[in-house]
Amino acid sequence: MPVLVASDLDRTLIYSAAALALTMPDARAPRLLCVEVHESRPLSYMTETAAQLLTDLGDAAVFVPTTTRTRKQYQRINLPGPEPKYAICANGGHLLVDGVSDPDWHAQVQASLAEQCAPLAEVQDHLMASASPAWVRKHRIAEDLFAYLVVERELLPEEWVKELAVWAENRGWTVSLQGRKIYAVPKPLTKSAAMHEVARRAGAELTLAAGDSLLDADLLLAADRGWRPGHGELADAEWTAPAISALPERGVLAGERILREFLKATRTEAP
Ligand SMILES: [Mg+2]
Question: Which keywords does the record carry (predicted)?
């Protein structure tokens, strides 16, 4: 029976230059591998050691990249190791099988959203009306499923984020602040639902997960074992649960540690 490893990508396995959080002297910094180029510029990295660990993991387990990114944003990432059979994009809204979105899964997700939470248009209108151009750089809609803003973090009023979270909660939506992005995501749109579906299809007996943000909490709770890094929304909230290990590492070294833990658990706890 295979082991399924569902992992968030950004700030869990891959890191932008701003998120690396390297603290050692430059001469002792780990060698980095660029795994994403955007508009001809390097954007995301992992350590070379992490790249080898991910390659080993891809051979030992069903590795499922599990991201809030749109399909387009996901597909420009060039991860080391064997091509994953499954990938979860748009926070669970798209389940890619051999790189192609499964239409049945997407239809099922859309039906549950229509039934269980306020429509995207209402949230979009609220964001347009309440977010100030003084600190919003971009309004974005992702895959017609959820919305996010790119903001100037230093100018962003904390109170506004709190008010938005309460407003959204009452409409069946969740708010997550990650770096320069504020996400508004429907509560029924989850990484965990998509992970359960992949686990069913792959016949997985053991599920492992990792993530750093509030949008990963349901994924971590749904897995048999989970890890979170020492940085990010979950760490800031000191969030934990019985099957979750809170790691001390921050930044790109946390990514390396998480992959080490995935491999160790895959090799020792495989059913
Ligand atoms: Mg993340």
Answer: Hydrolase
212 CA distance to ligand 1 middle (Å)? 5
Helix (H, G, I), strand (E, B) or coil at 119: coil
pLDDT of residue 70: 97
- Check: pTM over 0.90? Answer yes or no: yes
Domains of the chain and any CATH numbers = 3-110+189-269 (3.40.50.1000), 118-186 (3.90.1070)
204: left (phi over 0), alpha (psi -120 to 50) or beta: beta
> Ligand 1 centre and the CA of 271: distance in Å?
28
Cα–chain center distance at 212: 7
| Local mean pLDDT, 10-residue blocks, the chain (271 residues) | 95 97 97 98 98 98 98 98 98 98 98 97 97 97 97 95 97 94 96 98 97 97 98 96 97 98 91 55
**Which residues line ion ligand 1, judged by CB < 5 Å?**
8, 10-12, 212-213
Q: How far is the CA of 12 from the centre of ligand 1 (A)?
A: 5
Please state the separation of Cα 144 from the chain's center in Å: 18
Sign (positive or negative) of CA dihedral 234, 173, 177, 154: negative
